[in-house]
Design goal:
Radius of gyration: 22 Å
Number of helices: 7
Order of helices and strands: HHEEEHEHHHHEEE
Distance between the termini: 55 Å
Number of domains: 2
Strand order of the largest sheet: 3-2-1-7
Largest sheet: 4 strands, mixed
Structural class: alpha+beta
Strand content: 5-15%
Length: 180
């Protein structure tokens, strides 16, 4: 059975699907009202496109959100990983992280200006070793840092995510990022 597309559908079929969709929307709105949501709030939620707060990274590599400059606090290595992923909007596969070890080390040395100890170098090696779980732990910390200051649906745009075994990236549009 072929799937109907807008192009090959008759006007009658389009009207039928529109009425089905409209009925579903009305049912969902009725449910929202039953859960205590006011009609004004429903209309606002449906037609108001929220703009994402700008992510600002200052010269000291502090991360801030929005005009209020709410700081997103992260440990230096976690912040360095986040910056690495921001530098690669196309994303990075975790299994390819050893290829980014030098770049991560350079970022980390800027974020952590007091120098890289043997322990810091070992941490970079661990986080870029795809056999270890270190990168997943750091990504969980990045996620938590954004969830501490944003709601779930908004925070999702800011943290590193992707499919298992696939490319991981920050989906935030690059025009929402400011580097000072």
């Amino acid at each position: 059975m072929t799937r109907h597309t807008k192009e090959n559908m008759s006007e009658e079929m389009r009207e039928f699907y529109r009425s089905l969709l409209l009925k579903e929307v009305k049912d969902r709105i009725r449910m929202l009202k039953e859960y205590g949501m006011r009609q004004d709030d429903i209309i606002s939620a449906l037609f108001h496109e929220e703009s994402l707060p700008t992510l600002t990274i200052d010269r000291r590599y502090q991360i801030f959100l929005g005009e209020d400059k709410i700081e997103v606090k992260m440990e230096p290595l976690v912040k360095s990983i986040y910056i690495l992923f921001l530098n690669h909007p196309e994303g990075i596969k975790f299994k390819c992280l050893p290829d980014y070890r030098r770049e991560l080390t350079e970022i980390y040395s800027k974020v952590r200006p007091w120098g890289l100890s043997d322990r810091a170098i070992r941490s970079i090696e661990d986080v870029t070793n795809p056999v270890l779980n270190s990168i997943n732990e750091k990504c969980a910390r990045i996620r938590k840092a954004f969830l501490n200051v944003l709601d779930d649906s908004t925070a999702e745009q800011y943290y590193i995510k992707g499919t298992r075994g696939g490319v991981k990236k920050v989906s935030l549009p690059r025009d929402s990022i400011t580097w000072e």
